[in-house]
Every structure is written in C-alpha cells, then in structure tokens.
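User: Hi! Is it possible to get a structure for several chains at once, not just one? Here's what I have:
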Amino acid sequence: MTVVTDVAAAVCLLLGAFFSFSAGVGVMRFDNLLSRMHVVAKPQVLGLLLLLAGVALRLQDKGSATMLLLVAIFQLMTSPVAAYMVGRAGLRTRCVDATLLDTEDDAFPVRSSTPGDQA
Amino acid sequence: MMLAVGVVATTLLAVGALLAVVRIERGPTMLDRTVAFDVLTTALVGAIAVEAAISRRTESVPILVVLSLVGFIGSVTIARFAAVEPPKNGTAAQRSGPRPSSVGPGPGSGAVAGSESEPTSDAGTTNAGGEVS
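Assistant: Yes, the chains can be modeled jointly so their relative placement is included. Here is the combined structure:
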C-alpha cells in the first residue's frame, strides 16, 4: 500500500514540478502580458495542485491533508482574481496591446491603444 | 527512489524560478514583473512542498498556507497600486511637464476622482489623473 501511494506521490511530484518549470519557461519566453498571464493562471496552478496532491499522498496525515486542501482551494480562488486585476491594470495603463483582443470593450477602445497619444 | 524524485523535482522548480527571476529583471512593465513574481512565489511554495514530501515533515505544511496567502496579497497589491508608477510614467515625468502632478497624488486620490467622475464603474483607480488631464 505504501509502495503504491509512494509511486503515485512521486508521479504527482514530478508532473507538478514539470508544470511549474513550464510556467517558468512560459513567463520567460512569451512576448506579451496576456500570454504571460495565461501561463500564471493555468499551468502554474495545475502544477501546484499536483505538488500538493503528491505531498498529501506522501504524508497520509489528516491534519496535513486538510491544510493542503485549504492551500489548493485558496489557490483556485485567488489565482483568477489576481489574473483579473493584472489584466485590468494592464488595460488601464495601456500595457496590453488592445488589437490582440478579440472583443472590444467600450471602456477600452482599440483606437487609443497607442500609449501617449492623448497626453 | 524518493531521493531521485526529489532531486529532479527540485531542479525543475529551481530552473523555473530562475527563469521567473530573469523575467522580473527584464520585464518591460511592472505588470510583467508582478506576473513573474507570482510564478516565483508559487515555485517557492512548490519547493517547500517537495521538501515536505521527501522528508515526510508535517510541520512544513503551515508554511505553504502562509506563503500562498502572502503571494496573493503581494501580486494583487502591486496590480492595484503600483502598476502605473514605473518606467512609463517615470520617463514621461522626466520628459514632459504636466505628468508629475498626475503621478504625485497616488492611487488613493485617483480612486476618489474616478468614483466622482464615473459613478457607474470603478474605472480610474490606477491612472485616473493621467486619463483626465
């Protein structure tokens, strides 16, 4: 039984570490803010959830599992909020190239996307 | 076996964190740095998780809770209050005259001005002064 859970924990840890690594690569290689936000919002959270699952499988302790579940729920709740706030701030400070967006928000018209033209 | 898993996982996490640090150093805007800082914090949480898993240490688990809380608060705070300040307005303040007055009052007064002018939305919390002038 412990062998099975240890192997499962090892697989979870390796996969989670790989996803975290891919998040680092993505945040380094992608060339605009929205792509980098994608990397933080999705592969990073998946990697962290896999790592926490690995820890829970390895520890097999009820109190620790509860706390790890708390971390996972908290990450799932806060990551969209953080991404939303970063994206909103990016739109407002015109760090985001609005021509990349599919839909045009009335609050952020595309035509004034070049920085400094209304200064 | 667990030791090899720990070595590989820690190496992957360390390389990811290193790339995030490079992006923090390079990132053209403050928001890129915020995003990369988020990656760095989560890599730190992951490293502590790997350590707790390898050595079966239960007492490392509360650190994860605290770190995830702190990382969220840090990234949201930067996105809300410090997104405007760095290079764009800094260089604009050095180039042109009227910009520094909009940088000076800070996000607090900007939020007040935005809520006065546009009651329907919460627009203008970051750069209301610059948009109006």
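Chain B touches chain A through 61 residues (CB under 8 Å). Residues 89-133 of chain B have pLDDT under 50 and may be disordered.

User: Great, thank you!
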